Amino acid sequence: MSLEANKELIRRLVADGWGKGDQATVDALLAPTFVDHAAELGGGASDAAGFKEQVREFRAAFPDGKTQIDDLIAEGDKVVLRWTDGGTHRGPFMGVAPTGKRVTLTGIDIYRIADGKIVEYWCSEDVLGLLEQLGAVQPPR
């Protein structure tokens, strides 16, 4: 696939997978051998089923969440996405009961693409900052 086609695949994941919680889109975009290298943070499974569960949990916690693509860079078989997500905390998230607070989360993802499918995923996101916004942890003073 071309670099632009790889970037479009990630745009679809952001818009329909994360943005709408469309599990069929997630199924269509992830390879059967998909590996989530960031899953250990949340304790979930590192396969496609675990990734889909993350999407479901995030959408349930922040149903009005909207992801903005800040940067989308493709090189070789990888696409790097820098993003900002904002939403209202309406459901449980990482053990935190709904607060009704409007929050912002930022992160950088790396996706490896093969044969038109996402085969690997790495993510670094500011979960500590999100938990501070929710009042679950206090920043050091």
The CATH class designation is Alpha Beta
Number of separate helices:
5
Please state the CA-atom Rg, rounded to the nearest Å: 15 Å
CATH architecture label? Roll
The pLDDT mean sits at: 93
For the structure shown, list the relevant keywords.
Nuclear Transport Factor 2, Chain: A; 5 helices; 141 residues; alpha+beta; single chain; 5-stranded mixed beta sheet; globular
Summarize the structure.
By secondary structure, this protein is of the alpha+beta class. The chain is built from five helices and five strands; from the N terminus they run ααβααββββα.
How would you describe this structure to a colleague?
The chain contains 5 helices and 5 strands. With 141 residues, it is α+β, with helices and mostly antiparallel strands. The chain has one domain (3-134): Nuclear Transport Factor 2, Chain: A (Roll). It has a 5-stranded mixed β-sheet with strand order 1-5-4-3-2. Strand 2 (66-75) and strand 3 form a beta hairpin. Helix 1 packs antiparallel against helix 2. 22% of the residues are buried. The mean pLDDT is 93.
What topology emerges from the helices and strands here?
Blueprint: H1 3-18, H2 23-29, E1 30-36, H3 39-42, H4 48-61, E2 66-75, E3 78-88, E4 102-114, E5 117-125, H5 127-134
Parallel strand pairs: 1-5
Antiparallel strand pairs: 2-3, 3-4, 4-5
